[in-house]
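**Protein fold record**
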Amino acid sequence: MSTIRKNRIKEKLNQGKVTTTLMGLANADQIDQIGPENFDGVWLEAEHGGIDFADISDLTRACDLWGKTSITRVHQNEEGVIYRTLDRGSQGICVPHVNTVEEAKNVVDAGKFAPIGKRGMATSRQGYGVNDYFLKANDESLLIVLIEDIIAVENLDEILKVDHIDVFFVAPNDLASTMGYIGRSTDKVVQNVIDKTLLKISKSGRTSGALVTNQNVEHYKNLGVKFLATNITPWVTSGLKEFSNKLGN
């Protein structure tokens, strides 16, 4: 009998450790190529990217191969979308624009089997050969909600009371837009709101998440952020610029 795969990020978060998730990996070959490196999870982009249900099994299988947690950001807070993504093999789900208690509860209802939620009773790819899958799956599924609208910040005290959400991720760009700072997520006013929101999440005893870079990662760690997500694209572009400069181009 097979045993359910451990969710690396969830396990580390439960131990109070900091985790790193990489964004910008678009296919299974890229996940394989970078799989041996020291990071915890892969962010699969199904909201703004091209990933569809048919792609999820191969992408998450590559994550499984290297012991990385697969996290799929879906495009809407809809029960069928959430549990179908989990059924295809994703170990984690990230839901955008969660602005109210009711919306947060919907994520839990869709992402957890009874008695916690209402997820449809179908075996995920993660459950093949696991006889007690329905009894173990809730412990290994990672639920992330995006706090990315100013209304969510205003409702945060109530949202934080919803159990079984693992990470409350403060997303900068949409938040800036809803504050009237379109394309200006690094503005001091926006950054102050982000910092205060992250501190509130951490001080409440819940886990905060943030989008980080090489330049600001220490700042966010000092705010108590345990779920750190970073995009690999700046690393690639900066490396190319350095290479080109050495060639005199």
Notes: The chain has one domain: 8-247.
